[in-house]
Specification:
By secondary structure, the protein is α+β, with helices and mostly antiparallel strands. It folds into two domains: about 55 residues, no CATH class; about 210 residues, Fumarylacetoacetase-like, C-terminal domain (Fumarylacetoacetate hydrolase, domain 2, Alpha-Beta Complex), CATH 3.90.850.10. The protein is built from seven helices and 18 strands. A hairpin with a 2-residue loop joins β1 and β2. It starts with a strand and ends with a strand.
């Protein structure tokens, strides 16, 4: 079931119907002890929507915090080591990749999340910035993974590479986090063959494209969720980026006007423009 947040409320899309959920929010759903059951019950009494999904999509989130995990793919480990080589911090990322404890960091408040079709940004003090296409876990108040969405973790590679302690400045700033277009709510685990694709278009021409699968993520989704919730409670749930396995070449950096499209099988495409 795909749940969209629109300017006219929540819309649930099943295999054969589109339903408007007038009495439900993401906060209501994720604080419920049985969110999937509640969503199914709401669908049973919902009004069917005529036509396609409304064009004005909002970020599919309520008031949840957004967190992120890093160095979960072998490719991202190598890229982070390359960034930090001059600062002497390259071994940190190798150690994180092999360690039981994952790298976790705060990414965004809900109010700062950019919607599908919205504008993302690169920092003015960065000369090497990239999008990071990521699967995002939707976690309920009990710490269980109940859904998935698409995320763009905008990152300033030069700032992070200068010093690993600059990670928050490289990752957390206005316009650095986009989520959408919908949340896939399911009780079934995602297949390891689920594809994640990134395409960046500049002046009408593809400037970069790449692809990976969720099977390339080293850590399990339940494992990542359990570490995040180990000493922190989330009464209305939370969102967790799971890291990236697609890294543009070192000579590439985003430019104003670039269109970034991230597609994950079964969920949809998140498209944003760089300010």
């Amino acid at each position: 079931m795909l749940l969209y947040r629109t300017d006219q409320g929540l819309v649930l899309v099943t295999e054969d119907r589109s339903l408007r959920l007038t009495d439900l929010t993401f906060d209501d759903l994720l604080k419920d002890p049985a969110p999937l059951a509640r969503l199914t019950a709401q669908a049973a009494k919902a009004q069917e929507v005529d036509g396609a999904i409304p064009q004005v999509l909002l970020a599919p989130i309520g008031s949840q915090d957004v967190w992120a995990a890093g160095v979960t793919y072998y490719r991202s480990r190598d890229a982070r080591m390359d960034e930090a080589r001059e600062s002497g911090g390259s071994t940190f990322y190798d150690r994180v990749y092999e360690a039981p404890r994952p790298e976790l960091f705060f990414k965004s408040t809900a109010t700062r999340v950019v919607a599908p079709g919205g504008v993302v940004r690169v920092r003015r003090d960065s000369t090497w910035s990239v999008p990071e296409p990521e699967l995002v876990l939707v976690i309920d108040a009990a710490g269980a993974v109940v859904g998935y969405t698409v995320g763009n973790d905008m990152s300033a590679r030069d700032i992070e590479g200068e010093n690993p302690l600059y990670l928050p400045q490289a990752k957390v700033y206005d316009g650095s986090c986009a989520i959408g277009p919908a949340v896939l709510f399911t009780a079934d685990p995602l297949p390891a063959t689920t594809a994640i694709r990134l395409r960046i278009v500049r002046d009408g021409v593809v400037a970069f494209e790449g692809e990976t699968t969720t099977g390339q993520i080293k850590r399990g989704f339940d494992e990542l969720a359990s570490w995040l919730c180990r000493e922190s409670t989330f009464p209305i749930g939370c969102y967790l980026f799971t890291g990236t396995g697609i890294v543009p070449p070192d000579e590439f950096t985003l430019a104003s006007g670039d269109e970034v499209a991230i597609t994950i099988d079964g969920i949809g495409t998140l498209t944003n423009t760089v300010a």
